[in-house]
Amino acid sequence: CSIEPAQRRISLAGELLQTILAETLWEEGFGRKSFNLDTNVHILKLKLSTEECWKMGKETLWESIAREIMQSPFKHKQSKYLAFLSCTKYSNPGKIQPESFAQVVKMTKGYVALGGG
């Protein structure tokens, strides 16, 4: 997958989240409210190598990514960020059938499905 189609899909996903939020709030009686969305998908090349990302725990990796975002040229104090790490890799050479999500995570390098702040 090249970068441009991925950027379009990420932008579309953000627009869908924006719509879902507005419709859900409307259905719950809060009016049709939403959030501002920058549909320009920015690419940030981390200072970390793929191998360094794979060796980090998810909290440490998330903190490192967050730090780099907040030091980047497109940071903004009142913004929230949605980040995708392109070096995440699932590895199951033994073809073991995972019995839980926790097992899947243990077989995944560069896993950062974690939010905060």
Concise overview:
The chain is mostly helical and 117 residues long. The chain has helices at residues 3-27, 50-55, 58-70, 101-106; strands at 89-90, 108-109. The chain has four helices and two strands.
How would the blueprint of this fold be written?
Layout: H1 3-27, H2 50-55, H3 58-70, E1 89-90, H4 101-106, E2 108-109
Antiparallel strand pairs: 1-2
Give your account of this protein's structure:
The chain has 117 residues and is mainly α. The chain has helices at 3-27, 50-55, 58-70, 101-106, and strands spanning 89-90, 108-109. It has a two-stranded antiparallel ribbon. The longest helix is centred in the N-terminal third of the chain and has 25 residues, at 3-27. The chain is globular, with a radius of gyration of 17 Å. The two termini are 31 Å apart.
The largest β sheet comes out as: 2 strands, antiparallel
Strand order of the largest sheet: 1-2
Task: Please give the radius of gyration in angstroms.
Answer: 17 Å
Sheet/helix structural class? mainly alpha
From N to C, what is the helix and strand string? Answer: HHHEHE
Helix content: 40-55%
Mean pLDDT: 88
| Number of H- or I-type helical stretches | 4
Give the N-to-C terminal Cα separation.
Answer: 31 Å
- In percent terms, what proportion of residues is strand? under 5%
Shape: globular
Number of strands: 2
Q: Low-confidence stretches at least 5 residues in length (pLDDT < 50)?
A: none
